[in-house]
Specification:
alpha+beta, four-stranded antiparallel β-sheet, globular
């Protein structure tokens, strides 16, 4: 994820192992930030949370995925950037939205995803 975003102009920072962040500002100055891993104490949300599959998605075994969190206010930016990352990823990717819906990052519906 980091290498694709950096190629798109993102900046990186790290406060140590497990503390990396990649931040990209689009042409309008809107920010997208992705963090290495999930905040300590919230791992259960990834492994045990309620999940619902978006159309055409088969939910993976969530106890075996590596998860990272992101922050962004604009669904169109999220859809564009995560789609770009997924198209260049060497491994399968999924996006879990705020309602526990698991999306194929190449097919996220910007009208339905909940940030």
């Amino acid at each position: 994820m980091e290498s694709v975003l950096v190629e798109m102009g993102a900046a990186t920072a790290s406060d140590g192992p497990g503390e990396s962040v990649v931040q990209l500002a689009d042409e309008s100055g809107r920010l997208f930030a992705v963090f290495e891993g999930v905040p300590a104490g919230t791992e259960w949300e990834v492994t045990e949370g309620y999940f619902e599959a978006a159309d055409g998605v088969r939910i993976p075994d969530m106890t075996k995925v590596f998860a990272c969190s992101f922050e962004c206010r604009w669904t169109d930016l999220v859809v564009r950037l995560l789609g770009a990352v997924a198209r260049n990823a060497e491994t399968p990717m999924w996006v879990v939205d705020g309602n526990g819906v698991v999306w194929d990052p190449k097919r996220v519906d910007p009208q339905k995803i909940v940030l």
